[in-house]
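Interim report, section 4.2 (structural modelling).
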Amino acid sequence: MSQSNSVGLIDLQIMWNRLIAVVEEQAQTLMRTAFSPIVREAGDLSAGIFDLQGRMLAQAITGTPGHVNSMAESVKHFLRYFPVETMEPGDAYITNDPWMGTGHLNDFVITTPCFRNGKLVALFSCTSHLMDIGGIGFGPDATDVFMEGLYIPMLKLFDRGKVNETLMAMIRANTRQPVDTEGDVYSLAGCNDVGGRRLVEMMDEFGIDTLDQLGDHIIARSREAVLVEIAKLPKGTWHNTMTVDGYDEPVTLKAALTVSDNGIHVDYTGTSGVSKRGINVPHAYTTAYTVFGLGCVVATHIPNNAGSLEPLTVSAPADAILNAPKPTAVASRHVIGQMLPDVVFGCLRQIIPDRVPAEGTSCLWNINVRGHVKGGEGGNYGFGMAITSNGGTGARPDKDGLSATAYPSGVRGTPVEIAETQTPLIFWRKEFRPDSGGAGRSRGGLGQIMEIESGIAEPFDLLAAFDRIDHPARGRDGGGNGEAGFVALKSGKTLKGKGFQLIPPGDRLIVMTPGGGGIGAPAERERTQVANDLADELISPDSADRLYAYKPPQAAE
Amino acid sequence: MVSDLRIAVDIGGTFTDVVLEEGGRRLTRKLLTTPQRPEEAVLEGVRLILTDAGRGFSDIAVFVHGTTLATNAVIERRGARTALIATEGFRDVLDIANESRYDQYDLTIEKPKPLVPRVLRFTVPERLDVHGKIRLRLDEEAVGVVAGKLAAAGIESVAVAFMHSYVNPVHERRVREILKVGLPDLRVTLSSEVCPEVREYERTSTAVANAYVQPLMDSYLARMQAALAAERFVGTIYLVTSGGGLTAIETARRFPVRLIESGPAGGAIFAAQVAARAGEKRALSYDMGGTTAKICLIDDFTPHTARLFEVDRAARFLKGSGLPVRIPVIEMVEIGAGGGSIARLDALKRVTVGPESAGAEPGPACYGRGGRHPAVTDANVVLGTIDPADFAGGTIPLDLAAARAALQRDVGEGLGLPTEMAAYAVYEMVSENMASAARVHAVERGAVVNQYNLIAFGGGAPLHAARVAEKIGVRRVIVPPNAGVGSAVGFLAAPVSFELVRSRYMRLDRFDAASASELLAEMSAEATALVAPGARGQATFERRVAFMRYVGQGHEIMVVLPQRPLVAGDADALRASYERDYAVLFERHIPNAAIEILSWSVQVSTETPLPAQQSAAPATQAPVPSGRRPVFDGRSGRTTDVPVYRREALPPGSAFAGPAIVAEAETSTYISASFTAHIDASGCIVMDRRAG
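Predicted structure of the assembly:
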């Protein structure tokens, strides 16, 4: 290798690291400036840089998988509507089209061209979850996408630096939270600008005029690395089926996972058809979570980009809930989409059981609430908030599952004190739910119990989008199932897992999130671990005795 | 005559540094830390340095003490048997934390283990709402029952952390009263005193950390006081806080959590002093040791501060993998990039450096103590920037062949690169990692990094500073003398101070000047009282700050308040000030959005005059190199003979051009071809970027 090529290789590696730092900065800026609580407190966002062919070169570590991998596709759609030769400095483009963005109207995707010395060099894209986009609200009750809120086609948000006032007026007029929503649009545009500025600095420093060579290097190296990992797996096809609650009837998710020399393909033939309600999943979102599940197992430390994603492919029949066409309702598509890593793991555990966890809660148990406030509303109409919360994850082969932890979603939980600042609600309880983790040699993670009451003499709306109430996370290899989720009023009435319901003042909403499944026979669990769980009251004396066959020392006397 | 003899001690993980200043002179000593009884190395070091100075313990006027003991107690889980009392229904705040995974793709992560296990987390019925109104009265009988359990479990220290106690501490205080009746020796930490800020996880975590380290720090400080008294010490003892201020022992014993991370704070103060002397209004301190590099922004000779810190981060320094402590700290980024950081190729054949470190044992391959993997120091030896015969003043001979072999095996072979290029790749990558950290850190603080100049200290920074400066576009690099004991030197320049932060919600469009003034006056009185035992009558001054954001946003910007009662008209000035800062940080401000204040801070400090800016040193004759060394430059692919100067032989005013090496016992400074250098009046090596 010649000397200059050696320097070239080292520089390429350094610039690759730099791109990852640039998009991380983009994501951090978005998080710091966002208004939407689910973005600023919980990190429901993504950010990335793309080349002029629309290939994703780097994505921020901060963010959530459903956004990232679907945004990777989204930029290609932007390029169809806004060809590179039409792009001008100061432009920014926007959409919330579920089929060209990240799967529901609440996610705004903004793409900004980046120019250096007057020449277009890259695209920055970002997306975040806005709290209210009008329509029926952020719940699964709509019967088509038009009921779900304002639908923004591919439009220019900024034209050579000038904001599209007509569009902003339309947005403000179509949400219950005009102040926050407008603020979030600015925040999205701003973070792309920060990324662009940093990229130009890098190109100046290394004296490069295009990202072509760097992009090819990143993509080739990443693809190769994923293929090396896949080559270690046996070839063949493996099947798995998992059934979850759905809206008004159970949804069966059926997968055939094929490992070949070219990569891994997951096909969802046999999966249930589209739902009448808003739990349908556009294909990009199906791909996003399928590929994320695969990535966690076969490509853990390979950066996410067009190259590492390429060998991982997904298909689903045209009428399936996992390939829902416009205009099906899709607002709560995460409830089904986030189940897909579990479906994929069910295939993979037949090949590599030591690297794959048991089923977990998987879908976020966001408590979506809406209602009126007393006193001034600051330009918004009432309050609306998705209070992010989670159940337990599935047991790992050699470790317990994680309690009250998001997986596969990357969002964080909402602090109770923040939720109570943003809404007039009072939480009377938010703590672990004993005995909810599936018993096993390794135990499933625990869910949690929450009790929530209106703090004023007004009811509030629950826009429920919960799953695993009828179909708990399954244990395996002798491990027990996680406890199913449960939603009710304190006064006794059991509530539905999905759909709009009113919580009257003076009563309390009880939410019990599911536990993760266990792995291996509970009787084989280390006795000290059972003793600790018992002392910590994570399991009851009855479970210790009945499930784990554990006799506390004093009882044995 | 009143003695002005002052001693500072910094207890680090490996070394205990001692610095003595008296009149115009400064002496230093470095000893191995004695982890079991840290006071032994401290006393031994003080004894030695006093002998060096021809003085005794009774001559010491001021004794300043920084320590990582509190940090280590948390990391090694050696704290007290601690319990938590929380609001009923909130037993698991510490475990539920923020419900997230700090590594998106890794299915095998473990979450940080809380300092208090669930079995020792108790709850009692009580509830305040977000406005501080009592929604459920404290059940005092339940508190009595918990007290019995604490006694039965042999608890030494307890934290009380109730929901919204930052607005109204009434229930937490009542719990302390009740506990003290039956358990007078129990140490009680109230979250409303140690961290009166919104967000229950961080507040509870901070209160628990304080309770956890309190007995240990108490007994250490008592032993230290007794040992000094036995030596006839009659001066004043100060402890260094994470915020970079000094505090009296009484205050330190109440809030020992404030002592976490005091060593690095000393480094930042040291750099601030260097900046003042050199007249650098915007400086970036860059401290690179054996295991990590730390970077801190210093504006107007004041290090940036933050309000949240994570202790005991899991591997890879990942955000979110540690225990949060919400206290005023000097804000730094720390990355796993030191002289001992190990280089290797990852699955994608990318060169990676750190965070694993070869440490002191076995050390880098060139130490010849059995280290097989190449470290950053090995790369410097192969490139020629470190002289293997003159490392640590020649006390540790280095094995060049071992360094070459390790680099070739772990890096060169996989990439098909010759050994020198492999070394260059490691050097470049570690420099890039630090440049990246500096860049991201600057952005998070709204700073433009190339407007800053670097102040480089610690063993490794002077070797890499020129390259890091090139990468981030910095024009000037300063390498001060005494770089090896910078933290302890910094302690002697720190003011006596204490900062209080409280959450109190207020919208700017409904600005309530009277209630804000009342809160600030209350905080001012409290902070003044906490500073008084240390200030001992010295004049103090205050800094008042509001943390503001657009209504609905989640992150605040700090706005400085006037030092007087606020009036209604101040709202406009606050808005203007906020919007200006926001636009600088985030490119755009948001038209017509309402603004709210979340928290308020009052800091009371003694005046510590900054060193005056020095005048330029008169030029002297061009210095004569003590020798020349071959240094490999990967960018040109050439090896060049580079002049080597001995630092002690360079008087102020000496000027020379890069490439050059300045060697000294503690470290070497590499001046690349894009810099010229001179020695300033205080002995700093000042490197300036050539024009063009």
